[in-house]
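I hope you will forgive my troubling you with a question about protein structure. I set the record out below, with my sincere thanks for your time.
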Amino acid sequence: MKKAVTLLLLIPVVALAQTPQGPNSGMDRGKMLAQMKQSMLPMMEQSLPEMVNTRQCVQATTNTAELKRCAEIMQAFQQKMMASAQPPPGAQAPRAGESAPPPPPPRQEQEIEWSQKVKDEIVQGLDRSIKQGEVMIRCLKSSDTPEQMDACMQQSGLGARRN
């Protein structure tokens, strides 16, 4: 459940990080940035307060039932967001006559027992997700070019790792 909660919280950040880059991406990076600002920024701005609320919920837990309730709150929000989400910028839409791929199967809920260690790990994961979300929002709002976005992300310690 800890991994499921962390993954749910990172959906907006991961979606942004997965945008195609390089000469074969098929999309101009400037257009990609504009689309990210238009489609992903609002989603991230809505997600951030939910992550903060979830962190507060988890921080207050003292048992498994409370922890599960916190996860359910965030899962419900993420399902709502995913239902209204558009594909990430640069993602290929289905061609004429083709249908969109089927939605992923429902997640199998993993049982997890509450402990102080588990609670602390989840809170730490939420703290990282919140920081990443705040940086992404700030960089998207302050960047007019892909180069500015890259520089902002690098300065924040979240820039893409180059091999």
Q: What stands out?
A: The helical segments are 2-17, 29-59, 64-84, 116-142, 146-155. Residues 154 and 160 are 8 Å apart (CA to CA). The two ends are 32 Å apart (CA to CA). Residues 12-20 have pLDDT under 50 and may be disordered.
